[in-house]
Amino acid sequence: MKPILTIRKLHVAYGHVHALKGINLELHAGQITALVGANGAGKSTSLLAISGLIKAGSGSIEFDDQDLLTLAPHHIVQKGLVQVAEGRAILGTLTVQENLDLGSYTRKDKAHVAADLDWVFSLFPVLKNRANGLAGNLSGGEQQMLAIGRALMARPKILLLDEPSMGLAPLMVREIFRIIKEINQTGLTILLVEQNVKQALKIAERAYVLENGEMVLEDTGANLLNNPKVIAAYLGT
Ligand code: ATP
What we know:
Layout: E1 5-14, E2 17-27, E3 32-36, H1 43-51, E4 58-63, E5 66-67, H2 73-78, E6 81-84, H3 96-103, H4 110-123, H5 125-129, H6 140-152, E7 158-162, H7 170-184, E8 189-194, H8 197-203, E9 206-211, E10 214-220, H9 221-225, H10 228-235
Parallel strand pairs: 3-8, 3-9, 6-7, 7-8
Antiparallel strand pairs: 1-2, 1-4, 4-5, 9-10
């Protein structure tokens, strides 16, 4: 089947730092695709390029018969590609409810918005309980839940997650990965960028390993979990 999104020969540089050196990647509808690699490999840069938040030097990112490199970031969001940024970026001085409302701000289908809010609250009951509290008073894990919930309120076609488990306690890490899988089971396509290689490969149908701006491995998540190179470099013994 044709991929929902195709990255071809993408190059990105920050001045003299050649962060992405001609990477290729495909996302398939309804699947979780993981992009893993060490610090500085170029994972965040890949997501920022898809979202249009940094300018690629060359290559293409095809989605919906268009090259995203020609579009402004807000048009890319309107097309349904919604990124949950590393570090979460929720608005701490607004309530939980207000943060969620921001996600659906531009939607006109109010009945569906209400249904999506019910869904987000069922995924994250803590957000319902704390709806009128300030987002800044949530724990790190709860803030991550809010950031994901806010992205879901935009009804994305593709959810781009940048290190959702970063800085969270082990129990919360497991909970976040469980919920990502649950969200995917509704049919939502997800690109999951992670340094937690083991957990990411466990829930991903396909995965890519990025090293120093180059794609060095691509396979099913299950195969990569058993790949000796992946085990040696990222999973330990
Ligand atoms: P991390 O997990 O640390 O975010 P990453 O795999 O997401 O790592 P990137 O953040 O994409 O990696 O960085 C890729 C390369 O680009 C690194 O060498 C990094 O130092 C460099 N880089 C990233 N952002 C900038 C910037 N704004 N200016 C200059 N160099 C940058």
